[in-house]
Specification:
There is one protein chain. The chain is an alpha/beta fold and about 160 residues long. It is about 10% helix and about 15% strand. The chain has a domain of about 70 residues: Ribosomal Protein L15, Chain: K, domain 2, CATH 3.100.10. It contains 3 helices and 6 strands.
Length: about 160
């Protein structure tokens, strides 16, 4: 068998219906539209919005203003005062915070906020620091290390 010999199976392809071409064609006279009325006219019939005079679904639903930004990065906030559970001189990262029960999971980036006091020198690794948190960590003799964070963007196409 060669490429030019390929054919669809018998009966797999049907010809189109030629409507309104005489009574012997089977779809003559009214061309399958019935008799009279809105549906028999050209351009007739109701749109998808019409529900027989009932208030359409799209008008019954409440208004939802705005939109949800799919590129927004949600940070897991953690106040500085809660880092007092770690010993002096410790290196504290998101995994250590999760292990200590300060955050639930490490899948979200961590943001350290400046509420509370820090009385020990810690090396704090997080994805974001507020200005006051960074100042308090450095005032206590520690360092604030900002971790890189790759945001997963939805891919276009296939």
């Amino acid at each position: 068998m060669k490429l030019h010999e390929l054919r669809p199976a018998p009966g797999a392809k049907k010809g189109r219906k030629r409507k309104g071409r005489g009574i012997s064609a089977g779809q003559g006279k009214t061309a399958g539209r019935g008799t009279k009325g809105q549906g028999a006219r050209s351009g007739g019939g109701k749109g998808p919005y019409f529900e027989g005079g009932q208030l359409p679904l799209v008008r019954r639903l409440p208004y939802k203003p705005g939109f949800k930004n799919r590129y927004k990065v949600y940070y897991r906030p953690l106040n500085l005062g809660r880092l007092g559970v770690f010993p002096d001189g410790a290196e504290v990262g998101p995994e250590d915070m999760a292990e200590a029960g300060l955050i639930k999971k490490v899948s979200l980036p961590v943001a350290i906020l400046g509420d509370g006091e820090l009385d020990r020198a810690l090396t704090v690794k997080a994805h974001r620091f507020s200005a006051s948190a960074r100042a308090k960590i450095e005032a206590a003799g520690g360092t604030a290390v900002e971790l890189g964070w790759v945001v997963e963007r939805p891919r276009r196409g296939g």
